[in-house]
Specification:
The chain is α+β, with helices and mostly antiparallel strands and about 240 residues long. It contains 8 helices and 8 strands; from the N terminus they run αααααβββαβαββαββ. Strand 7 (about 225-230) and strand 8 (about 235-240) form a beta hairpin. The longest helix has 20 residues, at about 120-140. The protein is elongated.
């Protein structure tokens, strides 16, 4: 009686739920057939727009850029030319030095104690820094500004005159060797269309933060030595 009752229950279950008695492959095929007739499911997609990169600057300027004149002088001797006596002597050194006038990536200030020449290695470094500064401003959503170069190659005559009015100027300057230049951090030139609308104003401190990030990267790549000059308001760089 019990056996008959169990068989009867199983028979009822099989009638009500025929898939139970089907092989697993048959169940999968039937499931595919059923689902293939369903309308496709469209996933909701969210368009993510990259936000401008944040500006972090460096924790401490003097700690991030500590390379003293004595440290930079070693690189200047290694990578530079022998000191030029005066401007006429510099003109005769065009096989060793290249002209570094203003260009799209940086602006050379009106020079009173130096002349716009560098060894090729340093000229490439300056160009790369200006380009990287543009790239960094762009990805951070900051209007483009040019760097301003305030000092380049100094002749022996330039150093002598400079020491007469500036007691802190060193006689054995890295600038004598064409390997060194100064980029000011408290002035910049806005890049804008003279016939177009004015660009939004940007604080010099903001631009200094971006510049410090760029220079930190170049120093970490061992392409240059950098000294943060407080009184002169510039970064003092020598190519490595």
């Amino acid at each position: 009686m019990g056996f008959v009752a169990v068989v009867a229950v199983l028979a009822v279950v099989r009638v009500l739920f025929p898939a139970i008695a089907m092989p697993s492959t048959a169940v999968e095929q039937e499931t595919e057939t059923l689902t293939s007739n369903l309308p496709p499911v469209v996933e909701d997609r969210v368009l993510v727009v990259d936000a401008p990169h944040r500006i972090f600057s460096v924790a401490n300027y003097q700690a991030a850029f500590p390379d003293s004149n004595s440290v930079q002088l070693v690189a200047a001797h290694r990578n530079g030319v022998s000191p030029v006596k005066n401007r006429e002597d510099a003109e005769m050194r065009k096989k060793e030095l290249v002209f570094v006038g203003s260009n799209p990536y940086y602006h050379v200030d009106r020079l009173t104690s130096s002349i716009p020449y560098l060894v090729p290695r340093a000229a490439v470094l300056l160009q790369d820094i200006g380009r990287a500064f543009y790239d960094s401003l762009y990805v951070k959503g900051v209007p483009l500004h040019q760097l301003i170069v305030t000092s380049v190659l100094r002749s022996e005559d330039d150093v002598r005159r400079l020491r007469l009015r500036n007691g802190n100027a060193t006689e054995n300057s890295c600038h004598l060797y064409g390997t060194t230049f100064d980029i000011c951090y408290n002035r910049y030139r806005t890049v804008e269309d003279p016939d177009g609308p004015a660009r939004r104003a940007v604080r010099n401190d903001t631009l200094k933060w971006v510049l410090s990030e760029v220079l930190r990267d170049f120093r970490q790549q061992e392409r240059c030595y950098i000294k943060y000059e407080v009184k002169q308001g510039c970064f003092h760089l020598t190519v490595n």
